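Researcher: Next sequence.
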Amino acid sequence: MRRFSFCLQLFLIFILCTLHVAEGTTQSRKQLEEERLKIIEQIEQTTQNLEATKSNKKATLNDLKAIENQIKSRKQLIANIQEQIKNADRAIATNDVKIDSLNKDLLQLDNQYKQLAKNMYLREMASNKWAYIFSASSVNDAFLRWRYSKQYEEFASKKTNQFTTLRSNINSKTNSIIEEKKYVEVLLIDEKNNYKQLEKDLKKKDEILVQLQKEESTLRKNLTQQKRNRERLNKEIEKIILAELSKAKKKRSESSNSAASASIRKKNLLWPAQGYVSGKFGNQQHPTLKNVKINNNGIDITCKKSASVTVVADGIVIGITEIPGYDNMVIVQHGEYYSVYSKLAKVDVKKQAKLKAGQTLGRLDNSPAPELHFEFWHGKKKLNPQQWLK
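Model: Next structure:
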């Protein structure tokens, strides 16, 4: 009897542990759903940017970047939904195993209860419980029989209720997962339909490429001018940072910046603006010009018109200037690190202003798809901003 009770307790512990695992699956599904919503938000913004430039007869590199980003986001979205369906399938299969095991245990419990009744009958004590009790040879024996019968009935009833409750919970969880799977499958069908629509964008991309290739001479001229502007920007950034490094060395105030530097960690900085990365860090192949590479000291983030730009971490404004091709530029010092924000149409801060993470620096212009150029430096070294932003 004790051995049987111990086995049942172990089984109940197993069921509760597996239910806890199911909760972990729910969290994973929640994370995927949050990711899906973020991708949808990116797609909506890219779509708005494409619609805003639709009236322009001439295709631009920004149009090409927007469509390429749209394609990438769509593929990520479909992959995300497919992963959610896989998770749902795994959870349903796990719950099916649990239910099957639980049914077998209930059957075993039922058989044991029937076996007890059969044994009592064979002893000619099965007419009723009281006949079995009163047939005892002594009062003490009758009391033991009564207590034994009562304990077993309570035990069987309690365990049956527990198992029934657990099976009901698992059935409920399975039904909710099935409903969620149906919901996700509907989303997948919808996204596949959207992906068919995206094929039109792919054709549009080819058309843009053809058009841009025809304007190769103009693109090369623009590229030369952009290179000059980029060099001016880089020189101005270096000048301001070197001046700050020189001041720090003279005043020996590096220790005062240690707290600000310590708070700067990879994947910990706030994004300076809401949008999508339309220009990556480092050397990149030009999208249309063969054997031409573009060196980007930071990243470009395409945003909504008049989008606000915010500081990525606590810091002090050490430079505000205007650069041809990059409009207004703001540099913020974070101890040994420096964040650079350019192409601002409006600046809302002043030099030496102390800023808190997330505080507004300024705004981009009201063109359909303005770009923020963002750089991140450690001393005189340029870093890849995407490795530091959340």
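Model: Residues 1-25 have pLDDT under 50 and may be disordered. The chain has six helices and 13 strands.
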